[in-house]
Amino acid sequence: MRTALVRRTVLTASAVSLALLATACGSDKADEKGDAKPDARPSAASSAPVAAAKGKTDADLTALLVTQAEVPDYLLKADAGAKLAQSDQTPITTDKPACKVLAQSQSLQKIGKPTGVARTALGAKPESPAAGASDEEKAEAVKKALGITTTMTGLSSYDGQGAQETLAAFKSAGQICAGGFSATAGGETTKYQSVAAGPAVSVGDEAVSLALTMDLEDGDKATLLTVMARKGSTVATFSSISLMGTAESPKTLIDTQVKKLG
After folding, report:
1. Distance between CA 156 and CA 62 in Å, rounded?
2. Of 257, 227, 255, 258, which is closest to residue 240 (Cα–Cα)?
3. Is residue 223 within a helix (H) or strand (E), and if so which, with residue range?
4. By the 8 A CB rule, do 128 and 148 touch?
5. Cβ pair 50, 230 in contact under 8 A
6. Taking the complete model, does pTM exceed 0.90, yes or no?
7. Which tens digits make up the pLDDT trace of 33-46?
8. CA–CA distance, 127 with 83 (Å, rounded to integer)
9. What element of type H or E holds 170?
10. Alpha-carbon dihedral of residues 82, 85, 90, 91, nearest 10 degrees?
11. E strand residue ranges, the chain
12. Class for the domain spanning 4-23+54-260
């Protein structure tokens, strides 16, 4: 991939070894009785102040990241978090302000003012050629290994309504930026041709899945998948790429990670 933002993403994923490498409607229904009269006495629930959501710390979230044992079909790089944290040092601007959250989530940058973050990277486990495989079969196995989907996974927690606001901004951007947008980082600009709904995801309290199609300098296209899911005050972001151009949805990884949030 030759455009700046893709290069940085691919290089980051390469640094952690590429070769190794949704809206729940939980509605609380009130007890409705047509002829019931209101109780003049304030109930404990109505009189007590509602506690504001409290965000988690870096340490809290690091403990909640999926482990290798929990996702055996993926390969995890232990030092990925430190490398991915470097993305925060490169400011990103977009021609449409509402689209900035898409570029930030794609590179796992901090969004808003999280109380804590934790990041890692995992890749689908490549298949080894069968015993006695021909040279052609071995070459095909190598090609598939290079084209595996790598998913950068990030957890961000927020005080108050921060988590809901972050996911709402991401969802809104998917609609506002449907016709495409441009993102500039490090003095170079990358053009996203379109933003569309990604593979269906239903996890956590709410989740949104988007597919971003990127224009490359040689006229080719690349499709990146970004999923953002919220569980309470924590947002999980999954940014998936493939050197072969089209990322595959890491469904098992997403399910396992969000379930671990509680």
Report:
1. 10
2. 227
3. strand 221-231
4. no
5. no
6. no
7. 333 333 333 333 33
8. 26
9. helix 162-176
10. -170
11. 74-76, 92-94, 116-124, 150-157, 181-185, 188-197, 206-215, 221-231, 234-241
12. alpha beta
